[in-house]
Amino acid sequence: xxxxxxxxxxxxxxxxxxxxxxxxxxxxxxxxxxxxxxxxxxxxxxxxxxxxxxxxxxxxxxxxxxxxxxxxxxxxxxxxxxxxxxxxxxxxxxxxxxxxxxxxxxxxxxx
Length: 111
What we know:
- It is a single chain.
- The protein is an alpha+beta fold.
- The protein is built from two helices and four strands; from the N terminus they run ββββαα.
- The radius of gyration is 17 Å and the shape is elongated.
């Protein structure tokens, strides 16, 4: 297995109040972005979505879900790598709790 090359986790989605809206000039679409930050606060990724109106609650919710999934990537990778090494874990173990926490972070079902 190669050494970790990505920014170490944990990552978090940026404050939704800090999203950035910009109209596209060529097709009058709105581009909205939301930062994904490392634990240090450094912006390491950005989730972006485009739509026809200035605001769209469904697309804004999709953007936040995308940012949550990106932010969960380090934890998801870590537990999956562990699963490959030790696939016979059972429900209720510390590993099982961590798997569910990572899934919850990605889906927004846990803080």
